[in-house]
Amino acid sequence: MFNNLIESSSHANEFKRRGSFLLFTTATYVVLFAITGVISIYAYDAHLDSQSTELEITFVPLPTQEEAQPEIPNTIRSASNSDNQPTRSTRTVLMDTATNPNNPPDKIGTVASTVLPARRDSVLGEKDVDPPGPPPGSRVAGTGNTPVEMDTPPPPPPPAPTPTPMAPKVLKISTVINSRAVSLPRPSYPKLALQIGLQGTVSVQVLIDEDGRVLSAKGTGHPLLVPEAEKAAKQARFSQTMISGVPVKVSGVITYNFVKQ
Prior knowledge:
By secondary structure, the protein is an alpha/beta fold. It has helices spanning about 1-50, 65-70, 190-195, 225-235, and strands at about 90, 125, 170-175, 180-185, 200-210, 215-220, 235-240, 240-245, 245-260. It contains 4 helices and 9 strands, in the order H-H-E-E-E-E-H-E-E-H-E-E-E.
């Protein structure tokens, strides 16, 4: 009985010691986590304070119209500001422009001449001046009150030649062409048609070439009479048919009458 009491007392002390250790360990971890969280918050605030919120914008200057298009110096001295404006172009030396292919310069140099080229209306004078306005003969854009010099329009193109009508390849004749034949053989009377007393008319459509020969023959009529009529039509000959001096083919009809005598 005493042994059981001693063992129960020792187990209770062991449980109490373990519980105290667990509680102390838990409290220590909680304190460490709290300290870590506070330190991280202060560090993040310090990082935010060090950041710069300024935005830097760089502008690239664009070239103005005056810079993009340099001014071309005027090499002709105008007398528009003087009191006495000249009425004609004057030059100290009447020298043609170097770009005129019909009047090349006598001497060719590498340095540009300081003498201004003469215009069409230039005359000899004491200085090189031009009257205000464009030189004569140049085309200028006018307004409603200013006349515009226009070049003479080119003459209209010549009219196209009238095409000569070409002769037809085949001349079709609607009438019977028996009278046009130079040679028109008579067809043979079929024996069977004679025996049965058959009579009738056969029309043969023929195509005649440029020399007057029959190229083809197609007859219409009684079947017993058509073959002989086509055979005779192919042996026929005709004179040449001319159109504008050119021989052409002719299409017409030859008529054969089969009559029992």
